[in-house]
From TrEMBL:
Record-annotated DUF1996 domain positions: 46-306
Pfam families (UniProt xref): DUF1996 (PF09362)
Lineage, broadest ranks: Eukaryota, Fungi, Dikarya, Ascomycota, Pezizomycotina
This protein's record includes keyword Signal: yes
Keyword Flavoprotein: no
Keyword field: Signal
Natural source organism: Paraphaeosphaeria sporulosa
Protein name: DUF1996 domain-containing protein
Domain of life, source organism: Eukaryota
Amino acid sequence: MFWQTVALSALFVRNASAVPQAGGGNSGSADFLRFGCSQLVVERTDPLVNPGLLPSPHMHQVVGGNSFNITMDPDSIDPPKTSTCTSCIYTEDTSNYWTASIYFKSPENGTYKRVPQMANGRLNNTLLEQDGGLTVYYMRPFSGTKTMKMTAMRPGFRMLAGDPTLRSKSTKYPGICHRCLQKGDRVSGGSGAPCDSKDTAEFPNKPCPGGIRATVIFPSCWDGKNVDSPDHRSHVAYAPGSNALAGDKCPSTHPVRIPQVMYEIMYDTSGAMSDPKYFQNGKQPLVYSFGDPTGYGAHGDYLFGWKDDALQRAMDNLGKGCASEDCTKILKIQSGKDAIACTKAQQAKEDVGNSNWLTEIPGNIMVQ
């Protein structure tokens, strides 16, 4: 979890004393909101890139409000009104967050099994009460000691980070990366800011017995007009800087600062998946569900679904009753058990490879 050394980045904290400390609670005044979302469904749907298509080309894991469907038409679906539950810990968040699944390809016979996702850690070095899913951050940048004004997204807002066609390193998406965890990192998720020198844009080429932490960082600047664009990217932009988190100024074309969204997805690559025999001559056995054996094509989708002004209230109160994992003075929270209980049946029923070995990646995906 990057918050352990978040003081390395002036984007999130004013000074070292603001760093959240182990022990949980509202310790410090970290300028980000961090919470877990359990698995809602694993299926081949993608209402951003392939709206209305069932099934969509490749497998995704989805969390958030259970109004999620194949279109998510903003004219007919308002997640806070149409969702009856959310798999996220804050009940006012019925947004949907989704990423591609990862498959382990058996070097012995070429069959595939879906890599399970696991819970992330809390500040007090215990695991979040979470069934798979991912951890969501909403972050506020800083310039020295000056707070940057932020505007929460509005209904219908959606965006995409990353490019599934990439098979080599690209400077366009520096905030998408993977961290190889050792056994001792299992609960902490590894120290250090996200996508630093300990991370790689590609899949790790060595065993990761503590799992793999994948990070997806979204743009933090918005054109202030469009809630979407044809490519789901053009209406937003990253702040200028050397990486996705760097810089506190938005370009003139996208002058409105929005909360910066970040995902941490924890993949359980322990056991047989971390056998050293699978990592020789630069090879590794993992492949994304869209056929990417490199990892460079990792990406994430975001669809806003906060109720009323809940997200704006949380952002306005960061450091003032709302910090890191504790925003209960501002937002309504549910138990981990209730969040885990919020699930949705597959819209296109098929075996995703959780238990059974599959002869092919769902969708007859070719590895390339």
